[in-house]
């Protein structure tokens, strides 16, 4: 599922994110959403979230 729409993301979901430090390489990190940080309903680079382990990044994909 697409990570650009806030409606696709909720706390507790497993997601694949790109951390700020990894934006140039596109390396993804998997984790569970703790908080949704983006207030708007859409963001072209992905909704920004905080994972349960404290890492912050933009959602590239919602995992099953």
Précis, in short:
With 64 residues, the protein is an all-beta fold. The protein has no helices and four strands.
Can you walk through the features of this model?
This protein has 64 residues and is an all-beta fold. The protein has one domain. Helix content is 0%, strand content 41%. It has no helices and 4 strands. The model has no long low-confidence stretch (mean pLDDT 97).
What is the percentage of strand-forming residues? 35-45%
Low-confidence stretches: none
Sequence of secondary-structure elements = EEEE
Structural class: mainly beta
Q: What's the assembly state of these chains?
A: single chain
Helix proportion range: under 10%
Q: Radius of gyration in whole Å, from Cα?
A: 10 Å
Alpha plus pi helix count: 0
Adjacency order of strands in the biggest sheet: 1-2-3-4
- The average pLDDT value, as a whole number, equals 97
Largest beta-sheet details: 4 strands, antiparallel, barrel
The count of β-strands is 4
User: Into how many domains do the coordinates divide?
Assistant: 1
Tell me, briefly, the overall form: globular
* Ends distance: 9 Å
List keywords for this structure.
mainly beta; four-stranded antiparallel beta barrel; globular
Secondary structure elements and pairings:
Layout: E1 14-19, E2 28-36, E3 48-51, E4 56-62
């Amino acid at each position: 599922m697409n990570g650009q729409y806030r409606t696709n993301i909720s706390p507790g979901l497993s997601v694949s994110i790109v951390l700020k430090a990894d934006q140039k390489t596109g390396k993804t990190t998997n984790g569970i959403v703790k908080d949704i940080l983006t207030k708007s309903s859409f963001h072209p680079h992905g909704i920004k979230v905080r994972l349960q382990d404290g890492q912050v990044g933009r959602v590239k994909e919602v995992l099953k």
